[in-house]
Amino acid sequence: MTKQLVVRLLIAVALTTQCVSASTQNAAGRAGSAGILPAVFVAMKVSAAPGRPFGLRLDMPEEAAHERLRKIATQEKEEKEKEEGGEQEVWILKRDAKYSYLITRFSREHRLILITVVARPQRARYSDVGRLANAVKATDGQNYSYKWKVEPGKGARGYMVVARGSHPKFLTSYSVYFTARD
């Protein structure tokens, strides 16, 4: 697989993250087109929650994120998003045994709004992301996902952490993104 194809695939994963999680239930509450069973989310406090991969946190300024990323990764690609006005970047991790890439998305205000971490094959477990007892597991027998919904804290927005893969123990990637505003 060429590097350019890998980068395109990673961007596609990041772009579809929210679409897949939104399409898992239809209006009747049944499994939707993604084929993953519907789930009820368990809210948890921010202090016990996953969601700060490699020292990054949602809503951090772009420059602060870049400062952190330059220490651990090399930027592979940057794409401006015409419709939303933000940008998306692909970073290759320099020395990590479990993960190979990071995809970040920034808002037009230059704040971090999405982090997707892509794992090396059969290296990262779902439990590496967060406590499985606090997550909602969904599967169709071929695909697996664990979802953690983190309720808003004082002055902070709520967010989701979704780990997914085709193996029952090892994940392919996980994403951290804000939940919809009320």
Task: Describe this protein's structure.
This protein has 2 helices and 9 strands. Strands 1, 2, 3, 4, 5, 6, 7, 8 and 9 form a 9-stranded mixed sheet that branches. It has one domain. By secondary structure, the protein is of the alpha+beta class. About 24% of the residues have low confidence. It is globular, with a radius of gyration of 16 Å.
Q: How would the blueprint of this fold be written?
A:
Layout: H1 3-23, E1 43-44, H2 62-72, E2 73-80, E3 87-93, E4 99-106, E5 112-119, E6 136-139, E7 144-150, E8 159-165, E9 173-178
Parallel strand pairs: 1-7
Antiparallel strand pairs: 2-3, 3-4, 4-5, 5-9, 6-7, 7-8, 8-9
Approximately how much helix is present in the residues?
10-25%
Q: Can you give the mean pLDDT?
A: 80
Rounded to the nearest angstrom, the radius of gyration is 16 Å
Beta strands, count: 9
Overall spatial form = globular
Percent strand equals: 25-35%
* Count of individual helical segments: 2
Describe the main β-sheet briefly: 9 strands, mixed
Element-by-element helix/strand order: HEHEEEEEEEE
Please mark out the parts with pLDDT under 50 across 5 or more consecutive residues, or reply none: 5-48
Our count of domains comes out at 1
